[in-house]
Amino acid sequence: MEMDSLIEENFRVLAPQKKALGKLGLKTVRDLLFYFPARYENFSERKNIVDLQEGDKTTVYGKIVEAKTQRTRTKRMSLSQIIVGDLTGTINAVWFNQPYIANILKIGDKVALTGKIASNKSGLYIANPTFEKVDSYADLSGGSALLAVYPEARGITSRWLRFNIQKILPSVSRTNLQDPIPERILKKYHLPDLYSSLIYIHTPQNPGDAEAARKRFAFEEIFFIQLTRLKERQERDKKHSFAVKITKKEMDDFLKIFPFELTAAQKKSINHILGDFGKKTPMSRLLEGDVGSGKTAVAVAAVYAAVKSGYQAAYMAPTEILARQHFQSFIEYFSQLRLTTKIGLITSSECRKYPSKVAFERDKGDGSTHISKSQLLKWVENGEIPILIGTHSLIQKSVKFPAEDGKGLALAIIDEQHRFGTKQRASLAREKSERIPHLLSMTATPIPRTLALTIYGDLDLSLLDEMPAGRRKIITAVVPPEQRGRAYEQIRAEIKNGRQAFVICPRIEEPDPDKLGALNVKSVKEEAKRLQTEIFPEFEVGILHGKLKPAEKEEVLDDFRGNKIQILAATSVVEVGVNIPNTTMIVIEGAERFGLAQLHQLRGRVMRSSRQPYCFIFTDSDSQKTKQRLAALEKARSGFELAEYDLKFRGAGELSGAKQWGISDMGMEALKNLKMVEAARLESQKILKQDPELEKHPLVLKRLSSQKSKIHFE
């Protein structure tokens, strides 16, 4: 069977199946062969129906002797039921709110049901079991004690996938498979070769086989991601950057003017950056710091060094709100330092310049003015504006910097850098030029160490692991429904003392009540009305969400900054970029619908002053898992600690790696293993050191070339 041939050329594929395969990214026989099971069912522990007991987790194989669908009297819930029998007895299987089961399972069908055995007054039953139609038990197990269960899509079943993958395996041999991992690495870490791993992962004879195969493929994925990033760094290091020269005394004198004392971590990070500036190669550094740890102050110091050397600096933020926030911050910093450095702002909706030439041009209290895009671009290109802040508008072809010696873009800063794609980051860093800017990436998103080592393997890391003096630890409380009243009273008391509050909701509009699972989800618009009329009629409640126009967002934020609005009901649009020190309280509705990192980012909005901050977590969920996650949020001392918890306790399929980082669920699971990640990094470094162009490792180079189109690191 030809590995690169299309699936439909080798197997019978119906139109709905072809569509489903496309959604799964499966086009060729090779794609199918490398589509791995999500889990396994253990058939070595299969029981006859007569031997079943309450609490058993097992698989029952038999024939359907009865099938029906009905609705419960009280909850109007659909109930699909079948009775399955083997030679020893019968058992009832029940599915709640899954009426389509009646269209799939019919009397006379042979099925395998997998689930937990429960009991009621009628006897034993299986609730919501996974099921599979089979012709015989032998057909189901394929001679293996473990049954591979594959991720499905609408139109394609795990059984179809398993049945056809089993057809491919006989045509696979060690001679027609090229293992991209060097043999010495396989032996060193006791990993099975590619052929064995494919057999083990699709038809394991025992759990050890499956575990060994998954370990090998997880290592392979992390190894090649590491290799890709290190190769990118290697190529970047071949280029020259700008000579940013500033003495230690000049920087120390600059930092003394700051209206606060920098933390030791901030000073250390600034020294890292100055050290990078002293090299001929361009800086590639990630500045990772918790919310409120002072990343902007470090960025200001780096920008000052570039501007003092006669060059320009660009600062790219993922949202207009955040870009404007940084524009304001830089104006405040440089005006406090009595520097009249020109600062520009460019977004899709406006261009601004600071300072304005004459007083009547100023239409903002910060001393900046609106200018035309063409005028801003002209000043940027001739070097008159040394600091340019903006969104992705910064990387438009029309934005040009001086090309002559002694001028140009020497420093590119990317904030919340994981929100940008690789091409966007490369565009700002001008990586196609002969002389490229120093790159400083920044993030407040807590990232586990193993993930940082993998996806940011091409960057040097600086950590801001301490908070500025005077910042108080936030008091976080998970509030059950019956205690909401007490939380509201505490908020009322704080607002009467002059403070303000955020109320975060998962949605903008009310959900459709006819859609199952969409009930009881708070929306910004309705919650704002309820808060204004029923809870806090004496205060002004505002609304902020992503569908508002930029000018409308700015107006709302200006009113909130000026305390014309005391309570701001918003979506997670405030997660980054909203810095209003007077806001000391945040309520998060439907907290179970947000990830831990996002919850931590949201509560960071009220950790911007020396006043005591509060975070009230509202949830109506009774899930034990939700309670455990939110309890971790209450106890966590930092975002780093929370990130490690999230990685450790979230299961396969819950880590969203493919969507955000370009890493599979298997790869994300591997990130729980620090030793594996460090081993993959060590081996990738060794290979590139000994063979920079990979001339002696053609299979590694071939795999690396194919990998580049598959991973995006976003």
Summarize the structure.
The chain contains 25 helices and 23 strands. The protein is α/β, with parallel strands linked by helices and about 725 residues long. Strand 3 (about 80-85) and strand 4 form a beta hairpin.
How would you explain this protein's 3D organization?
Helix content is 37%, strand content 18%. It is of the alpha/beta class and 714 residues long. It has five domains: 1-38 and 150-172; 45-144, Beta Barrel (OB fold (Dihydrolipoamide Acetyltransferase, E2P)); 180-238 and 666-714, no CATH class; 248-464, P-loop containing nucleotide triphosphate hydrolases (Rossmann fold); 475-636, Rossmann fold (3-Layer(aba) Sandwich). The strands form four sheets. A nine-stranded mixed sheet has the order 13-12-11-14-10-15-16-9-17, with helices on both faces. Strands 18-23-22-19-21-20 form a six-stranded parallel sheet, with helices on both faces. Strand 15 (409-415), helix 14 (422-428) and strand 16 form a beta-alpha-beta unit. Helix 10 packs parallel to helix 11 and helix 19 (596-603) packs antiparallel against helix 21 (639-649).
